[in-house]
Amino acid sequence: MADSFYGEVLADHNLHPLHRHELESANFVCKGLNPTCGDDIELHLDIRDGRIADGSFTGIGCAISQASADIMLELIIGKTPDEARHLKDLFMKMIAGEINDDELDELEEAGALQSISKMPARVKCATLSWKTMEKLLNDAL
Ligand code: ZN
What is the pTM for the complete model shown? Predict the structure, then answer.
């Protein structure tokens, strides 16, 4: 049951991505590449007044990398850069199989990607957008 729910979350973000578009207002852009799969994304963030006011992604990639990017943006828009980094740390813990239930709750829909921790070949797909986001924040701030 749980697996099919998570499958639906991922499918929904692939079929109806909310944040896959260009972003005119973006003041920071960062590219992320996962050559082992061919995932090639560009993350666009509009950071102002100490918050991630808006964000989007463009580019190509497999279903997992695209769903992960869309889910991540859903989570970090409206957050501060520090909060976004905290969520990234939790996401990496989840993928490493080291997350507890309270931390998993904080990740909301990103928890749909928890099973990736058992699929080493797909880890780079799931973490690509998150690593790209951290790089963007490190470069930007
Ligand atoms: Zn991939």
Answer: 0.94
Is the pLDDT confidence value at 1 over 80? Answer: no
From first CA to last CA, the distance across the chain in angstroms is: 42
CA of 27 to the centre of ligand 1 (A): 26
Per DSSP, helices labelled H in 16-80 are 63-76
Alpha carbon separation from 96 to 26, 34, 99, 124 (Å, rounded): 31, 18, 8, 12
Question: 99 C-alpha to center of ligand 1: Å?
Answer: 23
- 50 Cα–ligand 1 center, Å: 31
Mean residue pLDDT across the chain: 95
pLDDT at 2 over 90: no
CA of 4 to the centre of ligand 1 (A): 20
In the chain, the domains with their CATH numbers are 2-140 (3.90.1010.10)
Distance 66 CA to ligand 1 centre (A): 8
